[in-house]
Each structure stands twice: as C-alpha cells, then as structure tokens.
Description:
The protein is mainly alpha-helical. The protein has a domain at about 50-165: Four Helix Bundle (Hemerythrin (Met), subunit A), CATH 1.20.120. The protein is built from four helices and no strands. It has helices at about 5-80, 85-110, 115-125, 140-165. The mean pLDDT is about 80.
Amino acid sequence: MSTNSQSESKSTHSEARAAIYGLLGAIIGGLATFGGAYWTGHQAQSETQSTSQRSAYVIFGGAAQQYILNLVQLGDAIDHHNGESYKQIRTQLLAEWSPLYSDFITIRLISPTYIGDDALKLLQAITFYVPISPSSIDRHHLNSVITAGNDRTDRFESAAQAQLNS
C-alpha cells in the first residue's frame, strides 16, 4: 500500500471513529436530557400531590375540630339550660355535617388507605351522636364522643403528618 492510500485509510478510520463517538455522545446526551426531564416532571407531580394532600388534611382536621368544639358548646348549652343556644348549635352541627363528609371523601380519594381509615374513624366518632332535644341528651355519652373525637383527631393528624413527611 502506498503512503497516500494508508493516509486515506487512517483518515477514513478516524472519521468513522469520530462519527461513532459523536453518535454515542448524542445518544448519551439525549438519554440524560430525557432522564432529567422525567425526574423534574415526577418531582413536580409529587410536590403537587403533597400540596393537595396537605390542604385536604388541614381542611378536614379543621372541620373536625370545629365540629368537636360545637359538641362542647352543645353540652354547655344543656348545662346552662339554654334551649335557644342549644337549637342554634344543633342546627350548626347538622349544617356542618355535609361539608365535613365531603372533606372526608376528598381524603379518601387522594390519600393512602390508612389515612382514609383514620379519617373515617374520626368522622364516625364525632358524628355518631347529636341528640334530638335537650332533654334527650346523655351528658356522659356526649363527653365520651368529645373525648373520642379529640383522640381520633390526634391520631388522624399524626398519621397525616407522618405520611406527608415520608
């Protein structure tokens, strides 16, 4: 082989190597770009879900606390023989039930099962007992409902916080 022919062969091999390395670099760069875009999208979705869950947990927990506070006020109205106050608070409790249940459904839809189960136990604990009239109230039972509601609220909030921090 002549020197000119060897030089052309080396040049062709160098060009082929350069093309292969260029192609490999483009493939690696494309994969890195795709991986970065996927990771960024996944992080954004995860943050959005976490924000939605946090918001739902706060709304439900706040509504449950308000419902429990109204149960306490209901008991106070009974203790002070304030029939008008009793009627207002009872009406308020009944009006709060539907939004509270709606907030619970949101928790069930966007949360892990164990969080939804804790929310259900809380809902059942506090909405189980609303006496029809002041004379039908069982103060001991009402106090038990309030205590159970506070306990279930603490459990729900702890589980929700742990889930958000994981």
